[in-house]
Write a structure and sequence with these properties.
Blueprint: E1 2-7, E2 10-12, E3 18-26, E4 30-39, E5 46-51, E6 57-59, E7 67-72, E8 77-82, E9 91-100, E10 108-111, E11 115-119
Parallel strand pairs: 2-11
Antiparallel strand pairs: 1-3, 3-8, 4-5, 4-9, 5-6, 7-8, 9-10, 9-11
C-alpha cells in the first residue's frame, strides 16, 4: 500500500514560478528514482526531470535551466521548482517513484494523481 499525493499546481502568468511537491506514504521501505512527467491534451506523456538516490539529475531539453528537481528522503518527497514558465509548459504534471516496500532486489513504480499547471496571460 503506497500512495503518492501531489500538490502545488495552479494558474500562473508567463515568466512566473511554481513549486510542485509529491509525497509518498504507506508501506515504504526506501525509494530509488524519483521522476516528474507531464502530459498536455493530445500529446504524449514526457519525462521532464529525474533524480537518483545519489542526487544525479536529468532534464528534458525544453526545461533545462528553468526547472530544478530535488528530493527529501526523510520526508519521502520529491519537488519540482519551475521558473520562467512558458505557455508551452501547460500540462498535467505527474510524479513517479520507484519504491521498495521491503528490502528486496526490485522496486515497483507508483504514480501520483496528477496536478494541473496552466501558464497563461
Amino acid at each position: 500500500q503506497v500512495q503518492l499525493v501531489e500538490s502545488g499546481g495552479g494558474l500562473v502568468q508567463p515568466g512566473g514560478s511554481l513549486r510542485l511537491s509529491c509525497a509518498a506514504s504507506g508501506s515504504v521501505f526506501s525509494i530509488n528514482a524519483m521522476e516528474w512527467y507531464r502530459q498536455a491534451p493530445g500529446k504524449q506523456r514526457e519525462l521532464v526531470a529525474a533524480i537518483t538516490i545519489g542526487g544525479s539529475t536529468n532534464y528534458a531539453d525544453s526545461v533545462k535551466g528553468r526547472f530544478t528537481i530535488s528530493r527529501d528522503n526523510a520526508k519521502r518527497t520529491v519537488y519540482l521548482q519551475m521558473n520562467s514558465l512558458k505557455p508551452e509548459d501547460t500540462a498535467v504534471y505527474y510524479c513517479k517513484m520507484a519504491v521498495f516496500t521491503r528490502p528486496t532486489v526490485r522496486s515497483n513504480d507508483y504514480w501520483g494523481q496528477g496536478t494541473q499547471v496552466t501558464v497563461s496571460s
